[in-house]
Structures
1.
Amino acid sequence: MWRRLKKSQNNIRTRQKSMKQVESVDSLILTLTQSKDYLSFSLTGSTNCVISYIKTMTQPKFLHQSVLPVLKNNSLKTLEEMKEEIPVENILITTDLEEIRKKVMNGSIMIQLKETAQEVLLIPATTVETRKVSIPEVEFSVVGPKEAFVESLDTNLNLIRKRLPLPELTVRELVVGKITKTRVAVFYIDGIANLENVNTVVQRINDIEYDQIIDSSFITQMIADNSNSPFPQLLDTERPDRVTGVLVEGKIGILVDGSPHALTCPTTIVEFFSASDDYYLTWHLASSLRLVRLFAVIFSVLTTPLYVAILTYHHEMIPEDLMSTIITSRADIPFPPVLEVIILELTIELLREAGARLPSKVGQTIGIVGGIVIGTAAVDAGLTSNVLLIIVALAALASFTTPVYQIGNTIRLIRFPFLMGAQMWGLIGISMCMAFFIGHLTKLSSLGRPVFAPLYPLRIRDLKDAFVRLPFNKQSKRPMQTRPIDSVRFNPKRANEKRDIDE
């Protein structure tokens, strides 16, 4: 019985292989005719041919205005004559079935002299439905440009080239995804970007084996140096101005057709805490705001673990004036500090997720009203103390100061290991978690470049735009982390000269 089953399976595989070998344009058309939006008709008269296309992917006006009048008014006997007469660029004559399938599915018009002809004429007539360029929704800035990427790859490249009108801006286009056949563009400035980084990105994208690539986040997860790390290793941004700025530093950009976000690499951990506003404000304000963000992140991660550690193991660290307040607030609480914190943290996460998934107006209402109602009810019911409620609320508020959404999610996640460490070993557990994550960051890399730079390895020159941003005239060289071919931005001596018009 087993031998018969195995023999029948081998016969089926043999038939499938033979069917693939004899696959032709006729079989492709037969498959397409099962779709309602596939149209095919015969043109008779001075020119006899068969025209086929997918109407949902093709511009009908283009067909009726640029193609049909030429075919009706001229006596064209061959595909070469049609190619010469039709006033359209990039017309292709081919018998390659894979090329025919690709072009037709992307909106090209297919012309055959006969229904059974294997040689076809392909006329590009793709129609692309996309939204207009709008303001950034995730990385909103008070000052600076108000343009964001959209889902069209060509539009996004236009936004980049508009800001960098350089012949050295090189774009390499790849096709990824066994089924989706998604266009992916890798772009960089030739002469500045390190070609080793470029080749690494191109090789990793070409090596992707997956059936669908729908968004740039798929690329992020598949080409990262360490896919098991909670820390992002490629920067995800929706702002063309931010991408332009890092390209000039020697970094590489990645755009995916259908995604309104771009990826930049290699990157550093400090870059996730810098906002676009930092470069549009004076360096004093920009440096102050960046330091506030870094402090807010540390506060968000360590505040609730410190609360648990101190109340569980280190009561002597609490000032006497504050001790009475904490004792009063926790007098009727039936839970230990760690369980109390976890309940509030999970409540905050539930409110955050509910507000993010609901429509914007409803989500804001749910977040505000839900937080007030649940917080007040929890304190009145004796499930949590009002002191902890204030601490958790401030920690949640501090986590929102991160300008990049990716690192915000990481900050939310790593709070829980710190909480567990604080519950088990107190301040020693917090120190162990801190040492673990710092050690992990020192080993983490982006395209083989250290993510923890410029702290490790220490690079004094790159500190000019790390925790603080010094004036532009002090940043005469590009960051060392990208290993740019041309490391000099400008002549610092000339930049410091300020001459009046009468000198």
Note: The chain has three domains: 21-123, 153-267, 280-450.
2.
Amino acid sequence: LPGEGRQRADRPPAAGPQAGTRAQALTTVTYGVPAALPGLTSLIGRQEARVRAQPRDARAWAVLGSAYVERGRRAGDVSDYPRAERALRTSLEVRGTKNAQALDGLAALALARRDFPAAKQYGEQALKSAPKQWSAYPPLIDAYTGLGDYKNARSTLDKLLALRPGAAARPAVMARTAAVYRDRGWREDAVAQLTDAAAAARTPAEQAAWLAGLGQLAWERGDLPEALRHFEAALRLDPDQRAARAGRARTLAGQGRTSEALALYRAAVAKQPRPEDLLELGELYESLGRSALAEEQYGRLRTAVGRSVAGGVDEELLIGRFEADHGDPWEAVERLRDEWERQPGIEVADALGWALHRAGEDQEALSYAAVATDKTKGGGVRSALYSFHLGVIEGELDRPGPARRHLQEALRINPYFSPLQVPQAREALQELGDVPDEPPPSE
């Protein structure tokens, strides 16, 4: 593309609301700012033509590979990931290992595939190659988070903020800051950062991404009207915003607007469904006693997971969660043990603890469930699901006080967190009964 090579590495090109889709997409794949699907498809077509004409153009290969990653992630089409890997590795072959843009793309690809060790490797190489380029930092923060290395995630964020990125990059940096704050349990600070990011966004697709994030934060704290407002605003700006579509359906289900929720879920999973959306829809059907329709979604989930794995995605966490609740808990335990060894993040700790509980191993389950909710071990995120899992496990171990406290906490954080497990939490609390009216122990 004319003039691409003269762009400063630390300053994205202007991409205001009137900028063309091609310019917006180029900003996305070069600097990690969300763009619309039509622009990505247009950019891919132009870059494919360019690399055919100039097969030694390393930057064109890197842009093409990164565009494949982003389109695959946004559209849920994992067949783009092998194409992305080929293009990005070709870029490395042409220019060599000191190719920050290709390394950034490989880090983004590894994150899309939930391969956090590879994302860390490529992210650290990219940072070493271009330490002043802000776009090298966010993938590395995500990689450290997925590996449970929260200390390095926070220090990398501090280094990113010290770079003082320009106005075009600032919304993406604020969004990354919000994610770190959310993981630390600083919900109000996370909301403030994402709100500012949405206000400062330079394109509709970018603003929609940050609004969807705000919707997710509102959902996590049980504020359904606020969540719905953000999800709907995101979809008005970008109808292809898949996270907002699923979030809107989830929120309507929490409000008891079941027919609307089912219609939205069915639309969301009609083409290239995300496995996690199929799991949510199946569980909603199950909560309504519609077991045949639930099993249909679970069957589709298995197919979608197979397709995802064929594209190189690590789906062990999702498979483990599914098997623990709807299949073979021991298979879940085996898969999640391996996943914990490879990338011991908080999500895996919670899932492994729950799988062990479902397999009848509550004592060992407690150690993992405690990790997921222990701030000193990185588990600062305020999650209704994690508190519910911990409370149920404590109840099985005859620890009524902590069990009651954590089950109440789960319902206080988000009383709508799961159509299947919220009733289980209420039932477990009822079985525990009221706090015994006993005098405090003497000194």
Note: Confidence is low (pLDDT under 50) at residues 1-19.
3.
Amino acid sequence: MIGKILHGSAFGGLVKYVNDPRKMATLVAASDGVNLSNNQTITDSFVMQAGLSYRTKKPVAHIILAFSPKDVEQLVDRKLEWIVHDYLKRMGYDDNQFVAFRHFDKKHPHVHIIVNRINFQGRCTSDSHEKDRNIKVCKDMTNEYGLYKPFRKNSVNEKRLHSMDAIRYQMMHCVMESLQSATNWKQFQDDLAFVGIRCRFRYNKKSNGIEGISFSIAKDRVGTKMRHDVSFSGKQLDPSLTLDRLCQKLGNPIAIVHEQARDIYEDARLDWIESRKELEVRSRIDILFPDFNLRIPFQAEPKMFEHPDYLGDDKCLASSFFSELIDKFDDVADAGNDAIYVGLAALTEILFLPYQPAISVGGGGGSSSKLGWGDDDKYKKKKRNQGVSHIRGRH
């Protein structure tokens, strides 16, 4: 069992996403004070309660509880309801409005919970040390409810191995089993973080190439008297865990960012079309918004491959950019030989940088914060399916 917690400011869009019939959403549990008649009444219930604390800017807590595919048979609705109530109580949300819906759009069981952080007393529930508490609660409940432990040790007798070999084997098992259940990079990273393993990419600042991937575990998690954290490249763990092989399952990071940047660009294009008269659209649309791949030619070709090109394209970024990157993220570290290790968040900044001029020229105003690495937080197309027929003239 793995938990992920997001905070937001608006209930409406989230309610529609969580109770979406296309995802075969089914109600698992709900608190008092929520009118379950339809999505609008659910939203209104949350908004009314949140109004008791006008100072709280982000009253929305979106919690995703994910389970192993091997838990499918035992996760009947009644047991899932118990788990939801117990989890919320342990996280301090036992005096709050909530609804929980189960989705069936993925192989692994998962539940989306919307919690109103403004409790029934009109006070905002504290999120202090929430991430740490979430990890502990999920770990404890996995044991107590007899849920599958995806990161158990293999049959290899690690006690007979030297310490570094034992650590490598243990990490190899964790990464392999996480890869089995993960469907995207974000989930893969979160699954590993659950057991204290950090996943990072090796990026070459001179060649602008992603050279590989590494995995590290904190020294206090390996049960030995290590002076430093322990790191291995994917290849050192196992030949099946190289960046190339991981991309075959989780996708090419360059392709993912390219397609999501294209979504931002196309949405800006449709926004411009809807705000102009038809004659102006016909005369200027190709000038202001040429084909995205033609505007970003050096990114359009690499995105077609299954994995990043190790050699890059020699389009070096300014040194000041990397200084700001190091200050902004805690998942950036020096790898030597003009290379750095970066996590998903920092990699997003790097890969999205070339797109910013094109998107800002087009009027999109997009930023890397709009990009995601999984289905839950992927940048949503707002109007892609509306078509050009919605052109409105100014009156």
Note: Residues 253-274 form the longest helix (22 residues).
4.
Amino acid sequence: MPLDPPDLPPMAAAIAPPTVAAEAPTQVLPPVVPAMPSEPPAVPAPSYPEPASGTGTSPAFRPLFTEAPGLNWAGPGDSWSDAWAMQPSAGNHPAAGAAQDPAAGPEAELPLTARDIDLIRASLAVVEPVADRATAHFYALLFLHHPEVRSLFPAAMDVQRDRLFRALLGAARGAEDPVALRAGLSALGCGHRRYGTLTGHYAPVGECLVQALARYAGSRWDADTELAWRRAYRLISSIMIEAAEEAARTSPPWWQGEIVRHERRTRDVAVLTVRPDQAYPFRAGQYTSLETPWWPRVWRHYSFASAPRPDGLLTFHVKAVQAGWVSNALVHRAAPGDVLRLGPAAGAMTVDHTAGPDLLCLGGGTGIAPIRALVEEAAACGTPGRRVEVFYGARRAAELYELDGLRELARAHPWLTVRPVLSGSGPVEDALTGELPEVVSRFGPWSGCEAVLSGPPAMVRRGVGVLLRSGVPAERIRHDLVGDLAAG
């Protein structure tokens, strides 16, 4: 079961892609964007195809856009998945139902106590220095005893191993804040639906996790520590399962989206316009996770670069980063007709435009994408008299690829001010020079504003510090530090 904490996206790493056979198109579509459905269709609870008679395997996955001219799809049921799809025995097949841990007794069903939390943190402190070995051992146990779950994971497991331990650390550190813990785990449970995770997968994951921790916790592991971990995992898995099952009543585990426009703004930046297969709910300032046909089960976060539109189209800004699997595929390989998969919208960098103070926006590089979306949303439903200040930063002039569009909006809306900022050099009219957070500090104080920040994590962190020192209350500063959203 892939562990993908929403606030901790993976770092990219280079690896040769698995070979995926391209599906031959059966028909070439005309170069027009079909009309968007006006109402979302009813979405039933997720269902999975019955195995073919006598084979024990599911039929090949078929995307909705089988006629897309550039389609090269990979997903559940593809040849890579089939290579791992060993026949599960009746005893270890992850059928639906409650996630019961066969080794857990009635004591494991009791609530987590303060002493349990102390024991968990103490054991994690021992495991943390050898986390890479502990998590590798966990996945080895999981794939050895439950090979049927291997196809839920990406081919390269180095990033996934890092995610697991960070997720455990996050849960242990947040155990004393049940409201925040439930919110984070609920988002995690909903996000796992896109991998094909079922309720029955949670029990084997928990058992293998306990075994791996027992091996690497050394003298810190005893019966009380094991009981504490079983209680904690039962709490974690029950919250995730509950959230996933609730989400399944109203939305699909993923959406499919056909690329209908691919524009190169710079050598390494592309703007993608995507048409989802059904109505896709989101707010300006949020982000989603994308999976490409060329990297099955590798998901990366990207912000929406426009507010919700009547035609339902979605826009993303993507920068190809060094060794970035998904970003390089989207910038240098993707083309109109290719089909992506999208997870549900996430993120709290949304703004109430009907009330509130003036809005200050800091956008660095492709981090300008959600800022552009928020400006569009403010233009559509903003409060009269509320001003919006946008500081748009980059190293070189060519990287301010969205500046003309923002200036056009500023000419149409007097309440909007756009200030380009360059940390390097370049011929940009009225550009300010310096690092973005420091330039913003020169225009302060900003104590009467609400602020949103988007861009490289280092810029966001420095910007938050500048704004706090400038008098902006912490509760009025919004960002989604899911890391570099476009990285990887």
Note: Residues 3-100, 483-487 have pLDDT under 50 and may be disordered.
